[in-house]
Amino acid sequence: MEVVIVQDATAGGELIAETIAALLRRKRDALLGVATGSTPLPIYQALTGLVKSGAVDASGARIAQLDEYVGLPQGHPESYRSVVLREVVAPLGLSEESFLGPDGTAEDVAAACEAYDRALAEAGGVDLQLLGIGTDGHIGFNEPCSSLASRTRIKTLTRQTREDNARFFDSIDDVPHHVITQGIGTILEARHLILLATGEGKAEAVAQTVEGPVAALVPASALQLHPHATVVVDEAAASKLKLADYFRDTYAAKPDWQGL
């Protein structure tokens, strides 16, 4: 696992955006798996800047969704489809035809989950998947004790996760109780995984993910099983890493970040 320690969230976003740009230069129609929330916003802002400056052509890129609320009507501003269209697809100048996502309004949610797994495979698989991490080590909505072999499925949100997400709604009562999420097994099929974590609140989860045992109790620890996983953290999120100095020495000297 590559662990890259950066100064702050802006630096992390710029680094990851350059990595995505390098991928798009190699593979114009790359399928990019995107995450929602505040953490990845610096990535999307930096990538949009590269596109607008002409540094990279993203017109052929395809976008895949990591998760979706169950039951929010189509077009709801806080559905993850709406968020991705607003924060990623539109700024990059892409069309909605470039977008893949699960149907959170389906009557048969289990069938919708299976259909999304098939759609990802039929699209050639995700080339680069962006991930955030919860304070409890969850990725996507794979909460602690999720199966490390799990596929895209419906999950019940914990009270803590609903409280964390309540800031996007009028009240916690408006936060859905269920989501569709790519499973850990589905996530691990992406060719390159990049996890961005910032802030001291993520430090313990990062340490358990990188240096702890692979365990269902810390779903993100499954990244240790992936042949190409990169963890980008700011100094605060790296504060509990025992090998922080080793990671600084190993990856700060890397001459070409596009090799990530």
Automatic annotation (TrEMBL):
Residue span(s) of domain Glucosamine/galactosamine-6-phosphate isomerase: 10-225
Any one GO cellular component localisation term in the record: cytoplasm
GO molecular function, one term: identical protein binding
Keywords of this entry: Allosteric enzyme, Carbohydrate metabolism, Hydrolase
Site (Part of the allosteric site): 146, 153, 155-156
Annotated EC: 3.5.99.6
Metabolic or biological pathway, per its Swiss-Prot or TrEMBL entry: Amino-sugar metabolism; N-acetylneuraminate degradation; D-fructose 6-phosphate from N-acetylneuraminate: step 5/5
Gene3D superfamilies, per the entry: 3.40.50.1360
Top-level division of the source organism's lineage: Bacteria
Enzymatic reactions: alpha-D-glucosamine 6-phosphate + H2O = beta-D-fructose 6-phosphate + NH4(+)
One GO process term, biological-process aspect: N-acetylglucosamine catabolic process
Active-site residues annotated for this sequence: 67 (proton acceptor), 136 (for ring-opening step), 138 (proton acceptor), 143 (for ring-opening step)
Function, in words: Catalyzes the reversible isomerization-deamination of glucosamine 6-phosphate (GlcN6P) to form fructose 6-phosphate (Fru6P) and ammonium ion.
Similarity comment text for this entry: Belongs to the glucosamine/galactosamine-6-phosphate isomerase family. NagB subfamily.
Name recorded for this polypeptide: Glucosamine-6-phosphate deaminase
UniProt organism field: Streptomyces liangshanensis
Gene that encodes it: nagB
